[in-house]
Amino acid sequence: MRRLWAVARTTLHEAVRTRTVPVVAVVLVAIVGLSPFMLRSTDKLAERVQLVLSYSLSAVGFLLAIMTIFLSASTLAGDLREKRIETIATKPIPRWQILVGKWLAVMLLNVALVVLSGGVTYVLVRHVIGRPEAAEDDEGRKALENEVYTARHTVDPSRPEAEIDEIIDNEIARKRAADQLGEGFNEAAYRRARRMELWISYNTLPPGYVCQYRFEGVTPARPDEQIYIRYKLIDVGDGGSGPEKKTILVDWTVSPERTLPIQRGQKGVVTPPQVVSLDDRHEFTVPANLVSADHELFVTCHNLTSLPGAAPAYAAFPAKEGIQVLCKAGSFEGNIVRTMLLVLIRLAFLSALAVAAASLLSFPVASLLALFVFVCALLVNQFVGLAAPAPGTEDEPEFITPTFYRLTLKAVAAAVPNFGRYDGTGDVATGRLVPWSLVVRGLGIVGAVYSGVVMVLGCLYFRSRELVETE
Amino acid sequence: MPDGADGPVIQTLELTKVFRDMWNRVKARAVTNLTFSVERGEVFGLLGPNGSGKTTTVKILLGLLFPTSGRVHVLGRSPRDVRVKAQIGYMPEETNLYRFLNADETLDFYGRLFNFGRAERRRRSEALLDLVGLRRERRRPLHEYSKGMARRIALAQALVNDPELLFLDEPTAGLDPIGTREFKDLILELKRRGKTVLLLSHLLADVEDVCDRIGVLYGGALQAEGRVDELLKRRDVTQITASPPLGGAGARRVEEAIRAETAGADVRFEAPRERLEALFLRVIDEARRARLASSGAEVGMAARDLRLTEEPTPMRGKALLDKLVAGEPEAEAPEEAPADEAPALDEKRKKVLERYAAPAEAENEQETLAPEAPRGRAVKRSVLDSLVQDEGVDQDEGLAEDEGAQRRGDDEEVSPGA
User: Fold this and answer.
1) Which residues pair with B16 in a beta bridge?
2) What are the tens digits of pLDDT across the range B276-317?
3) Which of A10, A90, A92 sits opposite B98 (nearest CB)?
4) According to CATH, where is 3.40.50.300 located in chain B?
5) Which residues partner with A330 through β-bridges?
């Protein structure tokens, strides 16, 4: 270990004395510190804080990734180019320790820089721009505490696949009985089209209708606390004529059972009718004791604009994050720590990749390769989306992307880690829990498997290569 | 006993190295069927013009390049074996060290690569900095070093493990004559201690001065090999020198005697020429004696830095270094405070060191004027003695243990400062 540490120590000296790290540290602090002035300001303090958090953490992650790639590649490539490796490799140090020592040094620097930038971000947000007393009113303070300075577990509604399939089965049986199917009836295509129509209609809320969602796995920490229901209704009517924002009159029923309406003696709450704006995100709280023993909760929204005197409003819940139940599951501080750990895990992979690449390639080529992989890792979700069958064609896949590109995208998506999956920035900014399970999974898959594989390959190649450039 | 003690320290058999491009086409045939060996305790010079394959050969011997065909053994093993690397030292032609580190940190770094403990690293650094005359410059980053100073720190890193086998690639390139002389003295001292040295140099005079055997490479093949004395000996001429010089009558009588012995012999009388190196060193010495020039700018950085020539007496220098490397209380120096005054010891040590490292004081300069070579060798020997005490090596690695045992054995055979 003394030999490995010798390499790491010298690499640390190199990074500090060549002023790489001091400059990056100053830039990091500047980026975070100036972020409130660079962002478009909004009226709501909670949104401003969310923007600052989201921007700062993203920028820190990106800048550290770039520094990690260039520093990791340059430290080994520099030793090879300047022939320092000749005096090192002729000493009794196994070659793999040279690579691992370099990686270790870069990661120690990253730990210091992540702590610095995470600390500056936290202090800036919590104690400078996002102080509760700076909020515009009580509602703003509440929003800040409930939507930013918290870590809430998020539950999406369960899709009623069984009910939808049952409806389609009945429709087909009815048509068959009435002999209405006709020649060349394609049952799969019919099912696909109807499934999509019914899901859209399930999320649609015309005047007088209700939408009921079932949430499974709702686990509040204590029964006496509040749980949060966050939703967004979008306007699916004719768009209206005036520039003013459209609104809708709704009430909500929340209960542990699928019963409507709630009978006397049954558990559940019905909120008073309220006018809410469309296309905005809203949130209300209900007691956690409404959750059933099976951790289920039923949330029903009733469009009251069919009532006399109300302007009819046609609305729908977006398919993604249209409605969610949130339970407090941790602290904002814990969320920041886990988010920064995820940043470190991604940096560990990038450092291993750049060091391994530099064992084979010159500095510019190695760093460009690592940058390319970094960009691919950020875009894996998009690649997967492009390579997937068109929505609703899962049974008989239909692809929009040509086969060659689709296969290439799939191969790239499989070869690089999915950084989007192991990124807590969006969640920490919106007060959603970044779970430890995500950190552990990231550590295992990105930190151990992906980083380990590239490092082992790099070490194997470095051990077997000649260390003198031939002229 | 070190590895490979029974056989040659270096042995190549039909060694061939072909460089290929990325399409596997032959780019250059650097070495072709090279067979040679170097015995323990030899100073072997590998000579050849640029592109003759000598650097390629050495880099194969160091495990940095791999042979295309043929066999290579260094200390009885593959050059890529870390046990071999624990016993070799390499001073490359170009000083490729971390320029942002200073001399202390550089030697500490290379000491760590040998798994030496902190105290051992410090002991070796102190001794090596004295040996190469960089004590005063130990805190300066290497990018501020002159070429001569850089060569010295490169040598120090090559000696950090007291190697059994030392590879020196153009060690005197860029050095002034005084520095060159010191290097050659050091090589001879290493040889006296039973070390093996493989020397690559373009400076044939240097090779001639220190090498036991040489090999001349050209076109990747060995063109000539043998003992320097034998290769350079002219068998068709007899040289007679006389001191004091013969007068005209004496010369005539000698000539007649020779002609009587060998009819028609070509007999010449001339004063032998002094070597330029010896002349240079004598002039500098006389200049110092007359206090005409003692600054580094006038006599060269090396002359100023290499304080071996500034020692009041060899024995005093030896005693000082022995104290330094043995870690004895500095207060035991004759004129210093009692040994039990621990807080004062650092100060005392500093004073002793400063006195040792400072430019020669007036009274010392007179003493410095004595012939330099024996003193330099004596001090170097004492420093080398200190290097071979390696108790600080971690015992968790068998190779280090064996190596240490061998070094302790050497200690008994060599009388320091002799």
Assistant:
1) B69
2) 677 777 777 777 777 544 443 333 333 333 333 333 333 333
3) A10
4) 10-234
5) A151
Q: In this structure, are residues A181 and A260 in contact, taking their beta carbons and an 8 Å threshold? A: no
Tell whether ipTM is more than 0.85. Answer: no
Distance CA B150, CA A87 (A): 14
Residue B26 pairs in a beta bridge with: B20
From the list A9, A86, A91, which residue is nearest B96 (CB)?
A: A86
- B26, containing H or E segment: strand B26-38
Percent of chain A scoring above 90 in pLDDT:
49
DSSP per residue over A19-31, as a string? Answer: THHHHHHHHHHHH
Range B363-371 average pLDDT: 34
Distance between CA atoms of residues A424 and A427, nearest Å: 5
Contact assessment for residue A422 and residue A343, using Cβ atoms and an 8 Å cutoff: no
**Chain B residue with minimum CA distance to A8:** B109
Q: How far apart are CA B310 and CA B295, in angstroms?
A: 13
Q: Report the gap between the CA of A448 and the closest CA in chain B (Å).
A: 27
Range list of H helices, A124-184? 138-147, 161-177
Subunit contact B112:A5, Cβ cutoff 8 A? yes
Amino acid code (one letter) for A209: Y
What's the whole-model pTM score? 0.77
Q: What whole-number distance in Å separates Cα of residue B223 and Cα of residue B221?
A: 6
Backbone angles phi, psi at A130, to 5 degrees: -110, 30
The reply to whether B28 touches chain A by the CB within 8 Å rule is yes
pLDDT digits (tens, 9 = 90+) for B330-365: 333 333 333 333 334 344 434 433 433 333 333 333
Q: What is the mean pLDDT of residues B249-278?
A: 80
Q: What is the average pLDDT value for chain B, to the nearest integer? A: 72
- Is B12 strand, coil or helix? strand
- Fold for B10-234, please state it: Rossmann fold (3.40.50)
What is the C-alpha to C-alpha distance for residues B154 and A453, in angstroms, rounded to an integer?
36
